[in-house]
Amino acid sequence: MILELEVADVLEIFPDARKEGIVEAKRIRGISSLNRAVEGDLSFLGNPKYRSQVSGSEASIILLPEDYEGKPRKGQLFLRMKEPSLGLTKLCHTIEKNMTSDFPSGVHPTAFVEKSAKIDSETSIGPFCYIGQNVEIKAGTIIESHCHVGQDSFLGKNCRLYPGVKILSSCELMDRVVLNSGIIIGSEGFGFEQVESAHRKIPHLGKVIVENDVEIGANTCIDRARFEETRIGEGTKIDNLVQIGHNVQIGKGCLIVAQVGIAGSVQIEDFVVIGGQAGFSGHITVGKGAKIAGQAGITKDVEPGAFLKGNPAMPVQLAHRISILQRKLPELFNRFAQNAGNK
Amino acid sequence: MILELEVADVLEIFPDARKEGIVEAKRIRGISSLNRAVEGDLSFLGNPKYRSQVSGSEASIILLPEDYEGKPRKGQLFLRMKEPSLGLTKLCHTIEKNMTSDFPSGVHPTAFVEKSAKIDSETSIGPFCYIGQNVEIKAGTIIESHCHVGQDSFLGKNCRLYPGVKILSSCELMDRVVLNSGIIIGSEGFGFEQVESAHRKIPHLGKVIVENDVEIGANTCIDRARFEETRIGEGTKIDNLVQIGHNVQIGKGCLIVAQVGIAGSVQIEDFVVIGGQAGFSGHITVGKGAKIAGQAGITKDVEPGAFLKGNPAMPVQLAHRISILQRKLPELFNRFAQNAGNK
Amino acid sequence: MILELEVADVLEIFPDARKEGIVEAKRIRGISSLNRAVEGDLSFLGNPKYRSQVSGSEASIILLPEDYEGKPRKGQLFLRMKEPSLGLTKLCHTIEKNMTSDFPSGVHPTAFVEKSAKIDSETSIGPFCYIGQNVEIKAGTIIESHCHVGQDSFLGKNCRLYPGVKILSSCELMDRVVLNSGIIIGSEGFGFEQVESAHRKIPHLGKVIVENDVEIGANTCIDRARFEETRIGEGTKIDNLVQIGHNVQIGKGCLIVAQVGIAGSVQIEDFVVIGGQAGFSGHITVGKGAKIAGQAGITKDVEPGAFLKGNPAMPVQLAHRISILQRKLPELFNRFAQNAGNK
Question: How many CB atoms lie within 10 A of CB A171?
């Protein structure tokens, strides 16, 4: 990343930081990890795992936790603060504002908006977007190229749709929802009934509601409900390539990592954290604050606060214990054979 | 879901239902699950798991199995029938017909159709669609926004392509095929040959054939064959984010749940059911009517009718037995250590 | 596959092949597998598994390894060569050149290119493409319909973007990169920080660099780095629906099969091979030439050359041993109970 930032601007962002050393450079040209930084870069110690890299780093400015003991090299400035990670985020938000190209308000000449759509004048509708009948879009929302917003859908304030998002009919985004490229909101649920040995589709007449401050990753799919709504709760963050089935209810503040699959009618309560590639059978409830390890297979209700792993899933400590013992199975079988022989 | 349906219309749909109770409302305003229904809603007992919720439900009309013993509350109507689920589907199809916006026949002014394409006058080609050279599309097919149909491809009657489907060159859909948003039909197969330590691509010159009544979920990918065809058999239903490799042959009436991965040249025979996130190695055959549990890893041929689970996969009953015994490993190791000590 | 190829043309491609038999047909109408070939087809023995099918094959020409002992039937020509698979690939490349429709140089009338973009005159920009500000695209690159190339991105020579690829801002493709349909390059990384019990997004200001000769499958997602770059090394091949997190560094010549998930900041060294649906925790290193079995869960650094399987992952031979012993657990528990009873 190449940027031009005055050292003075950086210092202004951290008025409470404890300074040590004198930076020689006048400008910061980039942000970089400790071991890759060169003169003119700003770096940071976020994860303690990388503590040993600080002393060798050539960064001109380093954000550090308050208890870091080392000294800056010549020409290097240490900024000690409570939480360097948050500090960095603060810095990045400042930079981001300067970097992001403006999305001018208005409808791109190549976009197509149905007459009955109500679009606030302070929205940006990008190239080749299609906005359907009776759609309503509130102020501050940015829709990039090749998006589709189906009829009767509603988008709140300050949402951001990256290129190629498809929101099908009758779905709702509340405020500040971020949808990465290729997301499908409102696809048909996977429900069929056996009629004379053929699978006959169950119509899905419901919708998807995505609450405030939800952010969703690229190419993730969320199916519409059968009658009511599939719902993603406030502040929940979902990664790329996740599958969320029809009628699923996800609570507030959950974190769902890439390639997770959640079957129909599952209830995920608030603040649940789900590792990548975990899978959930239909019609189960995952209690508040539960943690599910990556690749776990969850087929039954999960207690609030539980931490499960494996398939079939079990408490993480039992899973670790068993995986250690499994590695001893060859030895156990040998000794058992010996003992049996000794008798 | 908000709808306006006369009670009389509902009764007309179920002429053979056994009625008990008198509904007070004149109109049905929605369909809802038993525990969420309010006055004016229609509900149903499909899954016996929810039987206990019937007596507390405030729905105005409830579809029930014939053997349900309870009585309706005041102002509530019970409709008893052989299969309430099928009844509900019937009702939904009626509603769906009324709800779905018409897709007018013809080509949207923003779409681009190559001159050599033969498109029936009773098709609907949506905004920003691209239809390639020599494409043929039959009557009744609806193509929504941002779809691509590559040269020499063929689409049969009454197909439905949701927004953003990409059908690459020389592929074939037969009749009544439903493709959800973001599906890719005909991507390059993943085949490479080692030439002097580099991977050189094997050209994929074949195609994909999707037979009658197949329905496929959002963002699923189906690779084209090397020479001949990757084939999805009649009436098979595939969920979201599924990967189907080059040359795969899938039989009739299969159900394939989300995020399944099927490597190249696999043969799946008729009526196979595959749980979510299961994976298949290349060049194997899965026999007719087999069932594969979610997250299973299948690396060898599967006998017809088998029900496999786990990775490595094994008969489901053995898998259950082993997973129970695994949880007893800590105890077994303890007791073994004790016994050994006792000697 | 239907094609028209003179037998003489085929022979010209294999000047060094050892010929046996006399083909009667004048033209080759298709390429087909041994057991499906009919008269007029060319077939081949690539995988020794299919050796027994040669004698029954009705193909008119068969490419065979030098040590194949059988004799051609009447009217059939055997061409023996060192590596029939490579021979076939050579043939296919010839056919492909004849088959592929020309992509005419220039910008399709429905595409939209920002004025500041620098596009070589020998590129093909397809229908409904959007090319952003300051984008640079070099000679020989083909971009099919519905692609988005975000501002400040760079595409090298002879790249191929299939329909619906989204390359977001500031990303770089070097030369001869192939991106299948629906790929997202440069989506936001999944990184959040806890601020007063809410998840606050960490801005991702970096980019994605895709080196020479990389080929990527449909609907795969590659997140941009936080500051620097997510990098896919030269000649690496990635299959469909793969997730590659922010800051991941992938070396040269790797093979990554469908639905693999690689979390943020993972380093994959050169020539690593990863089976389908395997998953990687963040911040780990996978050594040069390592092999990872399908569905494996990798949570720790992997030694160069290791071959791991399972979750938790272990050397493949230990994994096989344990999975055999697991199947004997029921017997072991029985015998143990018996022994304990005998005392």
Answer: 23
